[in-house]
Amino acid sequence: MTLQQLHYTSAAPGPDGSGFRFTAVSDDLPAALLGEVEQLVGYEPPRAAPARPTADELTTFPIAFSHHLLSDGSRLLCRAVYTGTDYSGRYGNFHAHAVRLSPADALPGGMLPIQAWESSFWADSTPGDGVLAGEPTSAGRIDKARLLEFVRARAERLEPFLADVRNLFLDPDAPQLLVVERDSADVAHWIAVASAVLPRERAGRLTFTTYTRRPGLARQQIVGTSPDADTDAADADRRFRVHDCAGGRSSPARDDAPDAWASVAARLWLAGLPELVSGTVRNPEGTGPDAPYDAGRLAVLAAREGVALDAAGRTAAARRAMEQPPTSDRFALLTGLAAGGTARTAEEWTALAALADEFAPLAGHAITDPLVRDLRAELTRASDEPLPVLLSLHRLAEALRLDLTAALPVLTTRMSAALLDDNDDNDDKDRAAVRAALGAHPELAAAVLGSLDRAAATGDPAAVARVLADGIPGADLEPHPHLRMAAALGMAGQHTDRPGLLDSLMKAAGAEHQGEPSVLRTAVRLIWGDTPIRPVEAGILLAELPEAWCRAAGLDDSFVQAALDSEPDDPEAPELAKALLLNRATTLAPRQRAALLLLELAGDLTAGEALTGYAGRAVALRAQALPLEPGIETRVSTALAERLLDSTAPPGELLALVQGGDEPFLRAYDRAARREGVADRMRGTPGYAAECFAAWQTAPGAGALWEEIRTGLLTSVLRPVVRRMPAEDVDELLGDLRRRGGPWASAFQDWNRPGVLGRISGRWRARGGNRPGTAGARGPGDIEPPREERP
């Protein structure tokens, strides 16, 4: 095969002109490509290079060995060197020698482009005879021994460099790699490393240059340069992944997860086994895009060779091992995984736990000593680790027969919390892991059930009931009364008779536990939760449960609260108050007792059973019950007002209320008296109107509040009724007041003496107003209009 070649340098005048020009070009090389090629073969010496170098100094100039992809799909492999002076003696000359490889061409012997570094084929000057013959060969300048020596000297940059090379393969838009070295030969070594870890076809098309003074103009995938290159730092950070091995700043590690493949590959290189890396890359087992870079496969090979791996490598090896059946060299792999050597991560512990069954036969064997040591240390500090990690540690420790007594409480607490926490969808995996672990480990199941039983007693029993409803593998609830009740609740379904359900749950707990205060508390919280106990329910429980149980379980407070917080129209509340006053009097606080007495009194007033003196008693109790609950306030105020407005109210009760001066009660009386029902009753029953007049004439001047209320009622309620009464009703009202004796009748006459408006309304009443059938009727205060005089 004859390869197309070209030479480019500054030459003496000739047919093609003078200065920099192509001095030799293969006849069959397409002329249309020469313009493109000319832009790629140029050379600028480093800024720090001597302006007039000697022959010896010329040998120190970097060599620009480059591989380009041309627009027509062909490739250009070029070597450019600085030659000092040109034909005219001026400094600044260089010579470029290049070969073009068509898309179908390859280098002799399948050689990779970088293997032609410093081949004897490359010329530093144009051949005098113009004959372009020969082909690149491998000079053997970059062999395995030199490469290993090279990477060991730059071990800290090897792993990130390999990660970036892998990214070149996986991502078409990956950033270019900028390699900064003082010697272009070292850049060539980096390119050789990159070529060795790429699939063969991709390595053959890897574009690179070992040197350019202007990296910002370079378009190759790997760009080599010197420390004094014309590089804009900000532009370099955007465009390149920088690997500076000359004392400058390299790109920081990527933000994503560590590259396990690069980690393992770097360790294999440093261990002198680069062929294992090349072999897996160029002979992948899978077909996917990531197949050449299977970190697990490479890590298994490394572990079997005894190469120490970091946590990412060991994790990859363990995961790969789980995907394949054990082989004869499994022992070597397990030995490598157990050896550790660097801090183990949560991911590694989880992966190692998956091999617990394989480690179990090795428990007590010397090879597991490092693993046991690391595991013991991890168990002492892993309480904050994710729950799957804790479970992995437990599984592995169990396989290695470690004592888990100290670690079990922490694990139990975390497992119980995971089951009880249903607020975060992300915890579904944790709950699934816990249930799987409980099914496989009876001792864990027993410990977690004990923890859940305690949580039901002291925490949220409803949450425990939900856990049990979802099922717990291998759950034995017999020793756990709180769990038995929680399970019974789940089987009870909808239940409107809550006191009856309480009895069922207590029976589910077992007769031996029914007297335990915590059991009764749990049963109540399971049924009522945060919902208050209703008075009717409190009354039933108060009657049916032993007093000692209620007191020990703290239910008495709930019963009292049920009464105090009752609604004004709850029919059972007064009876509950009466029962509490009868059965729990010694445990009531003074304010509670006064409030319950008011609630009881309200019931008696409504039922007409209140004893004489109730108004004064209500005023006195209210003062002791402050601050009084709104429901009781409304209830007793309403009942007291209605009782005082009833015609059967004992004499003196209203006076006692007035003299007590209790504003809320007096205001409630005022509101009740202004209801339309009171006015309707006065219209239909003149005797009741007389009673109201007498009541509202009681204790004039007893206080500003009462004076305001009574005069307002006389004016706004009674007077409109009386003004519209038929004369006979007014007479009946007046007769009732006379029968009472005292000044009531005369007081009414004085109060009812009409003024001008009264006379007008009297005339209206006398004429019947708008009422049919009342024409000519007369009432008190009516006057006859004067007769018209006739002549």
Largest sheet: 9 strands, mixed
Broad structural category: alpha/beta
Query: Taking Cα atoms only, what radius of gyration do you get, to the nearest Å?
Result: 52 Å
User: What is the overall silhouette?
Assistant: elongated
Share of β-strand residues: 5-15%
Helix content: 40-55%
Strand order of the largest sheet: 2-1-5-4-3-7-8-6-9
Number of strands: 9
Specify the oligomeric state.
single chain
What is the residue-averaged pLDDT? Answer: 89
Poorly predicted runs of 5 or more residues = 756-791
Q: What is the overall number of helices?
A: 38
Ends apart, CA distance between termini: 161 Å
Protein name: GTPase-associated protein 1-related protein
Pfam family, one: GAP1-N2
List the helices and strands and how they pair.
Blueprint: E1 4-14, E2 17-25, H1 34-38, H2 55-58, E3 64-69, E4 75-85, E5 91-101, H3 144-153, H4 155-170, E6 176-180, H5 184-196, H6 200-204, E7 208-209, E8 222-225, H7 233-239, E9 240-244, H8 260-270, H9 274-282, H10 295-304, H11 311-323, H12 330-339, H13 346-353, H14 356-359, H15 369-381, H16 387-399, H17 408-420, H18 428-440, H19 442-458, H20 461-470, H21 481-492, H22 498-509, H23 517-528, H24 535-544, H25 547-553, H26 555-564, H27 573-583, H28 590-607, H29 614-625, H30 630-644, H31 653-660, H32 663-673, H33 676-684, H34 686-696, H35 704-723, H36 727-740, H37 744-752, H38 756-766
Parallel strand pairs: 6-8, 6-9, 7-8
Antiparallel strand pairs: 1-2, 1-5, 3-4, 3-7, 4-5
Helix pairs in contact: 4-8, 8-9, 8-10, 8-11, 10-11, 10-12, 11-13, 13-16, 15-16, 16-17, 17-19, 18-19, 19-20, 19-21, 20-21, 21-22, 21-23, 22-23, 23-25, 24-26, 24-27, 26-27, 27-28, 28-29, 28-30, 29-31, 30-32, 32-35, 33-34, 34-35, 34-36, 36-37
